[in-house]
Design brief:
single chain; mainly alpha; 73% helix; globular
Length: 598
């Protein structure tokens, strides 16, 4: 079943990030073998028999650390020597934790000198892993938290604590359940790794082109068609990509040139794509890593998280869609009709929807997310054989496992520093006092509390990945919101939505900058355009806070009325922000002058 030549070109995957090292043959074999271990081990644990805690979390961190040290290398001969030495340290420290897991738990508080030495090594190598992948800002944040943990007794009274020496603090961070091997490690090992690999298999099956082709045929010929294609395609692909930046680069390589060709200004084209790509982080069934972390922190089934997230996500895309429509209407931008109808594409390639349909159906039926991810991977392999150009054989299977492992390193590399931050916050008791500080600053007002959380999240997001920003902010901010009467799930949704703002909000806004590069547009203009189109990002948290039915907390009648009013309000909000009403003022004086002349 071959595609017509008139269809969209193949979509290039994002280039390797800075610092990525080309592997020699031996290193490639090692990388591929470890990627296959990740896939097969966690698939077995999801479907056949769950692994013990130490292996479930330890194997993920161990393989992630080794893969990072293989591909994010120090330069020169001695750099290679150091890299291999650090691989040995990683294997030793994490392997020691796994091998002695029960014994270490029995002697908590009475750790041996060897226990403590291993813990110090494990904490320090986690910092180095994060430095190589995420950058120095994240490491500085982790360093500040370590200093706070050691010198807490010298801090102002409101945030002071007893403190401890570095060795004892590192021992607590490395061995206790809220540190390096805590919630972040568990979520990444339980949910994220399999869904990231699923995304790679979905791409390998050829589905990514369908996610562009179908919306292009459906809405590409209408007012602002290419911009609307960007919204729909980014929603489809973004729901499984797990990264606003990856979504921007992947779909943007096609949609941004298409928008520019139709008449959108370059910075507007980039802004539309960045804003649309961000929406994938809210869109079920996958929602990046944040949804799984939310399920872990709230103790709620992921299927419930999906149901609560669906309508707000649709409203986000509806908001961007409406603004694109009126932006195009202002400048008379109309797309071109596709040579292939949307119905013809859907009739011929409907099977590309099956992996997402299988995942959604089984999760709603009560099956675990990890189990459904494995079913999704199997479905991708099956549907790939419907098209002879995309069939997944043994070589493609290994390539997809490798691609999934590569894509997981960006978030996996944060696990050590996240463990430090959460471990110190818990150790110091700041988790509890921070809520009191926020409420006191906001004078008990919910509006100001959400505003302060937005500012804190934006500042934090400038230096750390958005998923890390969510989990750090949630630990300290959710208690403040719940004390003000916000439902716990709605409180998490507030923090999760706000944690995404650094993708499109200046001065950092990495997704907007990536779009600007593709659009060859001014970075700042693109950033502010992205901020304009993504404005619902800031409206939704306040609706979550003030309208319980928005998070399905209320009667059926309340929920229906809320959905209708929010939909109408979203249209009005987006119409106003589009600025099309300003044209009325521009035309009115001209009409008056013409009337006088007559």
């Amino acid at each position: 079943m071959k595609r017509p030549d008139s269809r969209t070109p193949d979509i290039d995957l994002p280039a390797k990030p800075p610092g990525w090292h080309q592997l020699n043959r031996f290193e490639r074999y090692v990388f591929d073998a470890l990627a296959l271990v990740l896939l097969l081990f966690y698939s077995y644990a999801a479907v056949v028999e769950p692994a013990a805690t130490q292996y479930h979390r330890g194997i993920y961190i161990l393989i992630t650390y080794v893969l990072v040290l293989l591909v994010y290398r120090l330069p020169g001969f001695w750099g290679k020597v150091i890299d291999y030495a650090l691989i040995a340290v990683a294997i030793t420290s994490i392997g020691y934790w796994m091998w002695n897991f029960e014994a270490i738990n029995y002697r908590t508080g009475l750790e041996t000198p060897l226990d403590k030495a291993i813990a110090v090594a494990g904490v320090l190598i986690g910092i180095e892993i994060a430095r190589r992948v995420v950058g120095t800002v994240f490491v500085i944040l982790g360093g500040i938290m370590l200093l706070y943990g050691v010198y807490g007794a010298y801090m102002p009274d409101i945030i002071s604590h007893a403190g401890d020496d570095f060795v004892n603090l590192a021992t607590s961070i490395f061995y206790k359940s809220d540190g390096v091997f805590g919630i972040m490690a568990n979520v990444l090992a339980t949910y994220v790794i399999l869904f990231v690999i699923f995304g790679a298999f979905l791409n390998k099956s050829g589905a990514q082109r369908f996610f562009i082709d179908f919306p292009l045929a459906a809405v590409g010929h209408r007012i602002g068609g290419p911009g609307k294609v960007a919204v729909v395609a980014s929603g489809l692909f973004g729901s499984i990509s797990g990264s606003a930046i990856a979504n921007t680069v992947s779909t943007g390589t096609f949609t941004i040139p298409l928008m520019k060709k139709a008449g959108f200004r370059p910075h507007v084209a980039g802004g539309v794509e960045a804003a649309a790509s961000l929406g994938g982080m809210f869109m079920p069934p996958i929602m990046g890593a944040g949804g799984f972390i939310m399920a872990e922190m709230t103790g709620l089934p992921y299927s419930q998280i999906m149901l609560v997230a669906l309508f707000p996500a649709l409203m986000y895309f509806f908001s961007v869609f409406v603004m694109v429509h009126y932006e195009a209407k202002r400048f008379g931008i109309v797309g071109e009709k596709s040579p292939v109808s949307a119905w013809a594409i859907l009739r011929r390639e409907w099977y590309y929807i099956l992996p997402l349909a299988v995942i959604t159906a089984f999760m709603l039926a009560g099956y675990s997310p990890s189990f459904t991810a494995v079913l999704g991977i199997i479905t991708c392999i099956v549907i790939s054989w419907f098209n002879r150009d995309t069939r997944i054989g043994l070589r493609e299977f290994v390539e997809a496992a490798r691609e999934g492992a590569e894509n997981s390193l960006k978030i996996g590399a944060t696990v050590g520093v996240i463990g430090i931050i959460i471990g110190v916050l818990t150790y110091s008791g700041l988790v509890l006092t921070f809520a009191d500080i926020i409420i006191e600053l906001a004078d008990g007002q919910l509006f100001l509390t959400i505003l302060f959380i937005a500012i804190a999240s934006l500042v934090l997001g400038m230096g750390v990945p958005v998923t890390a920003a969510y989990i750090i902010t949630a630990v300290v901010a959710v208690p403040a919101l719940t004390q003000l009467g916000v439902h716990p799930l709605a409180a998490h949704m507030i923090v999760y939505w706000l944690s995404q703002d650094s993708n499109v909000t200046p001065p950092v806004c990495i997704a907007a900058y990536a779009a600007a590069t593709i659009a060859r547009a001014d970075m700042w203009k693109t950033a502010f355009a992205a901020l304009k189109f993504a404005k619902f990002l800031y409206l939704a948290p306040f609706i979550f806070g003030y309208v319980p039915a928005f998070s399905l907390n209320g009667t059926t009648q309340d929920i229906i009325i809320t959905f209708v009013l929010v939909a109408i309000g979203t249209w009005a909000y987006s119409w106003f922000l589009s600025g099309i009403w300003l044209d009325w003022f521009k035309r009115r004086p001209q009409a008056g002058k013409q009337h006088k002349k007559a």
